[in-house]
From TrEMBL, chain A:
Protein name (database record): Acetolactate synthase
Lineage: Bacteria, Pseudomonadati, Bacteroidota, Cytophagia, Cytophagales
CDD domains the UniProt entry points to: TPP_AHAS (cd02015), TPP_PYR_POX_like (cd07035)
Top-rank lineage group of the source organism: Bacteria
Protein family: Belongs to the TPP enzyme family.
From TrEMBL, chain B:
EC number: 2.2.1.6
Family listed: Belongs to the acetolactate synthase small subunit family.
Lineage: Bacteria, Pseudomonadati, Bacteroidota, Cytophagia, Cytophagales
Name by which UniProt lists this protein: Acetolactate synthase small subunit
Claim: Amino-acid biosynthesis is one of the keywords in the record: yes
ACT domain ranges (all copies): 5-85
Reactions catalysed, as given in the entry: 2 pyruvate + H(+) = (2S)-2-acetolactate + CO2
Pfam families given in the database record: ACT_AHAS_ss, ALS_ss_C
Protein species of origin: Echinicola rosea
CDD domains named in the record: ACT_AHAS
Length: 564, 167
C-alpha cells in the first residue's frame, strides 16, 4: 500500500495553499531548505519573491497585507535569517498588520546547544508577536499554521511567528488541513453592548461641538461605509490619524484634516475646544495627543475600539464601546440624531485658511529657488489615479507626503506609523504593488531611509513590479536635522550625508531613472514616471534645510501647534 | 501604591509564564511573589501574582495580559477581596530546639514538619506579616534557612472563571 504521508516541508506549503496564500516573501537558508525544496513543486500555486534581505521580506509582506487586506507571509531560515525579521515583526505588531512569519530552526536534538545558526527566535520574538510557537513534529505543522492564520487576521490583527525545526520539516506525516475557527482562550471580537451604544448616543446627541477622530481601526474593520454613514447622518467634523488616512475620502464635506505632531493646524488646535470627542478605531498615540495632561480635558470622550487594552490606556473616556466598529457604528448611527454643525465646521475651515497661507502655499506653490517636497507631492496628486497607493518611509518626506497626498479611497496609505522604521518603504512598496498590479504604487523615500534597504531595488528588478520610487534627496537625515535646528541649537551632529549617485544605482538595477534639480522639469518628470509602464526611479533634489510645519513639539499641548 | 493580587487563568501552553511576566517587566512593575498551579478546570492553569503598584497600572496590566492568546481571563483584587495564604519554612539547628522555641511554635500555630540529625524544619502558613514576625523571632534561634512561597489565593466575589468559560 502506498504511503500517504508527506514530508513536513510539503505540509508547510500545502497548508499555505489551503490558506489561499499567493505570495511568500522570503530568503532561503540551511534550516529552511526542505521547505524551499517542497516549494519548487508548487510554483504554479504560490509565487515566491526572493528579497535581498530578510528585513525586506517582512516589510514586503507588510505592504502586501496592508493593500490586499490579507495575511502577508514571509519566510526565513534560522539564526540571522530569523533575527532579521525582528524589526518587521515589531513594526507589524504596533501597526496591527496581519503576518505569518515562518522560520526554519536547527534540528530538535541540537536545540539549546548553540548549534550553527541557532537562535531562540521564539524567545526573541515573544514580546513582539501576537502569538508564536515552535513546532518540532511534522504532525503539528498544519494545526500551527491554521491557528497562526486565524490569530494573525482576526480581531486586532498582528504578526505570528511559526518556528519549525529541520527534523520536523523532514519527518513524514499525514496531511489533513483543518482551518482554525476558534480558540477557547481567544475572543477576538467582543460583543457590542446595547447599553454602551445607548450611553454613547446620549453623549453625542447632547453635544454642541462634537468631533470625530478616526484611525486604522476603520480600515481593518472594513467599516468605511458604516463610518461614512455615521458622519453623513450626524454632520460631525472628522479628522484622521496617520494610519487612518484613506478610510474617508478627503473630498467628504466633513473631512477636516490630519491629526498629530505634523498634522493640520485646525484638527489639532480644535481638539481642545470640542465638547465631545468621538474616537473611532484609534489608540491615542502620543504623536496624536501631545501632552496628555492638556489633551481634550474639556471634552467627554467616547471611544469605539476593538481592543479592550486600548480603552482608558492613554485617555480616560466617558463612554467606551468595545467591539468591531463595523458592528458598533451602524448601531450607533441608528441611535444618534440627524444634524449639521455648520458653525463648528466653519471654525475648522477658518483655521484651515490660516494654515494655507502660513504653510501650505509655501510648500505647494513655492517662490523660493529650492524645490520643496510639497510641490513634488502636488504633482503626484495631479497625475495619480484615485486608488493610487502611497508608500512612505520615515522622516520629513513621510510627513510632507502624508500631509499633501490626496487620499480618496481606502487602503491607499502604507507607512510605518508606530515603530517609525526607516528602510520600510522600498520593500513595502514592492509588496503593495504585488498585492494589486492594477494599482499605481508610489514609494516616497528619503535619502536616509532608502540606503537602509536600497538592495531591494534588486527585488523590484527581478519581479518587474512597476513601483514608482520617488527619492526626495536633501542630503540630510532631515527630520533629525529639523529637531537639531529647533531644539539642539543647530548642532547638526551626524545628520549630513555624502550620498552616492542614486541614478547610477537605479540604472544598475535596470530601472528607468531621472533626476530633477530644477522646478521647470518637475511636472514633466512626474508625469512621465506616472505613465511609465515598468518600475521607475525619480530623484528630486530638494531644499537642503526645509522644515515640516505645523508642528507640535514633544511634550507640548495640541493647542501649542506651531505654524513656523 | 497598593498591594494587589493578579489572578490569571491560562491554557497550559509552553512559555505562558514568560509571556505573562513580560507584561509586568515592560511596565516596570516588580513582581513581589508568584505561584502557578493547576486549577479545578481540566487543562486550565492559574497564575497568582502579587504586586505593589497603582490601580491604574494593575488595570492596564490585567488588560494587557488578557491580550495574550493563551490567557483565558485575568482578574485583579485588593487584599480584602481575596482569601490568601503563604507557606513559610524555617530551618533551625537542632541545638536551638529548647522549651523557648517550642513555646514560640505553639504561639504562632506553626509546626515541625521534619526533624533531622542536625536541624528541624518548622512550617507556618499565613499572611506575609505573620510569617515575617515568626522569622524575626527565630533569628534568636540561629535560623539556618528561610523560604516563603508566593500567594495561593481565591477570590471572595462569587463566580469567576467558570462563568466566563461557559458563556
Amino acid at each position: 500500500m502506498k504511503d500517504s504521508r508527506i514530508r513536513g516541508a510539503e505540509i508547510v506549503i500545502k497548508s499555505l495553499v489551503s490558506e489561499n496564500c499567493d505570495y511568500i516573501f522570503g530568503y532561503p537558508g540551511g534550516a529552511i531548505m526542505p521547505v524551499y525544496d517542497a516549494l519548487y513543486d508548487y510554483a504554479d500555486q504560490i509565487k515566491h519573491v526572493l528579497t535581498r534581505h530578510e528585513q525586506g521580506a517582512i516589510h514586503a509582506a507588510q505592504g502586501y497585507a496592508r493593500v490586499s487586506g490579507k495575511v502577508g507571509v514571509c519566510m526565513a531560515t534560522s539564526g540571522p535569517g530569523a533575527t532579521n525579521l525582528i524589526t518587521g515583526i515589531a513594526d507589524a505588531q504596533i501597526d496591527s498588520t496581519p503576518l505569518v512569519c515562518i522560520t526554519g530552526q536547527v534540528a530538535s536534538p541540537l536545540l539549546g546547544t548553540d548549534a550553527f545558526q541557532e537562535t531562540d527566535v521564539v524567545g526573541f520574538s515573544m514580546p513582539g508577536t501576537k502569538w508564536n510557537i515552535q513546532v518540532r513534529k511534522a504532525a503539528d505543522i498544519a494545526p500551527a499554521i491554521a491557528k497562526g492564520f486565524h490569530i494573525a487576521r482576526s480581531g486586532r490583527p498582528g504578526p505570528v511567528l511559526i518556528d519549525i525545526t529541520k527534523d520536523a520539516q523532514n519527518e513524514l506525516s499525514e496531511f489533513n488541513y483543518v482551518p482554525c475557527l476558534g480558540i477557547r482562550s481567544y475572543r477576538p471580537y467582543p460583543i457590542v453592548k446595547d447599553s454602551e451604544i445607548t450611553a454613547a448616543a446620549e453623549v453625542i446627541n447632547a453635544a454642541k461641538k462634537p468631533y470625530v477622530l478616526f484611525g486604522q481601526g476603520v480600515v481593518i474593520g472594513n467599516a468605511e461605509e458604516e463610518f461614512k454613514a455615521f458622519l453623513d447622518k450626524t454632520g460631525i467634523p472628522a479628522a484622521c490619524t496617520l494610519l487612518g488616512s484613506g478610510a474617508l475620502s478627503e473630498d467628504h464635506p466633513q473631512y477636516v484634516g490630519k491629526l498629530g505632531m505634523h498634522g493640520n493646524y485646525a484638527p489639532n488646535l480644535l481638539t481642545n475646544q470640542c465638547d465631545v470627542l468621538i474616537a473611532v478605531g484609534m489608540r491615542f498615540d502620543d504623536r496624536v495627543t501631545g501632552d496628555l495632561k492638556r489633551y481634550a480635558k474639556q471634552a467627554k470622550v467616547v471611544h469605539l475600539e476593538l481592543d479592550n487594552a486600548e480603552i482608558d490606556k492613554n485617555v480616560k473616556c466617558a463612554v467606551s464601546v468595545l467591539g468591531n466598529c463595523k458592528e458598533s457604528l451602524p448601531m450607533l448611527t441608528e441611535k444618534v440624531n440627524e444634524g449639521t454643525h455648520d458653525e463648528w465646521l466653519a471654525a475648522f475651515r477658518k483655521l484651515e485658511e490660516k494654515e494655507k497661507s502660513a504653510v501650505v502655499s509655501l510648500d505647494l506653490l513655492p517662490t523660493k529657488i529650492g524645490l520643496t517636497m510639497g510641490e513634488v507631492i502636488r504633482y503626484i496628486n495631479d497625475y495619480k489615479k484615485d486608488d493610487a497607493v502611497l508608500v512612505t518611509d520615515v522622516g520629513q518626506h513621510q510627513m510632507i507626503a502624508w500631509r499633501y497626498f490626496k487620499y480618496k479611497t481606502t487602503r491607499t496609505q502604507v507607512t510605518s506609523g508606530g515603530l517609525g522604521t526607516m528602510g520600510f518603504s522600498l520593500p513595502a512598496a514592492l509588496g503593495a504593488q504585488l498585492a494589486d498590479l492594477s494599482r499605481q504604487v508610489v514609494c516616497v523615500v528619503g535619502d536616509g531611509g532608502i540606503q537602509m534597504t536600497i538592495q531591494e531595488l534588486g527585488t523590484i528588478m527581478q519581479t518587474k513590479a512597476p513601483v514608482k520610487v520617488v527619492l526626495l534627496n536633501n542630503d540630510f537625515l532631515g527630520m533629525v536635522r529639523q529637531w537639531q535646528q529647533l531644539f539642539f541649537d543647530k548642532r547638526y551632529s551626524f545628520t549630513e550625508l555624502d550620498n552616492p549617485d542614486f541614478i547610477k544605482i537605479a540604472e544598475a538595477y535596470n530601472m528607468k531613472a531621472t533626476k530633477v534639480t530644477e522646478r521647470e522639469n518637475l511636472s514633466d518628470a512626474v508625469a512621465e514616471m506616472m505613465i511609465h509602464e515598468g518600475p521607475y526611479f525619480l530623484e528630486v533634489v530638494v531644499e537642503k534645510e526645509d522644515n515640516v510645519f505645523p508642528m507640535i513639539p514633544t511634550g507640548c499641548s495640541v493647542e501649542e501647534v506651531r505654524l513656523s | 501604591m497598593n498591594r494587589y493580587t493578579v489572578s490569571l487563568f491560562t491554557e497550559n501552553f509552553i512559555g505562558i509564564l514568560n509571556r505573562v511576566t513580560l507584561i509586568f517587566t515592560r511596565r516596570g512593575v516588580n513582581i513581589d511573589a508568584l505561584t502557578a498551579s493547576e486549577s479545578k478546570e481540566d487543562g486550565v492553569h492559574r497564575i497568582t501574582i502579587e504586586v505593589t503598584t497603582t490601580e491604574d497600572q494593575v488595570l492596564q496590566i490585567v488588560k494587557q495580559t488578557e491580550k495574550i492568546i493563551d490567557v483565558i481571563k485575568s482578574f485583579y483584587y485588593k487584599d480584602d477581596e481575596v482569601v490568601y495564604q503563604e507557606i513559610a519554612l524555617y530551618k533551625i539547628p537542632i541545638s536551638s530546639l529548647d522549651p523557648g522555641l517550642e513555646k514560640v511554635i505553639r504561639q504562632y500555630n506553626a509546626r515541625i514538619i521534619s526533624a533531622e540529625k542536625e536541624f528541624v524544619v518548622i512550617e507556618m502558613t499565613g499572611h506575609k506579616e505573620d510569617t515575617k514576625a515568626l522569622l524575626e523571632i527565630l533569628q534568636d534561634f540561629n535560623i539556618l534557612e528561610f523560604a516563603r512561597s508566593g500567594r495561593v489565593a481565591v477570590a471572595k466575589p462569587m463566580g469567576t472563571i467558570e462563568q466566563y468559560l461557559n458563556n
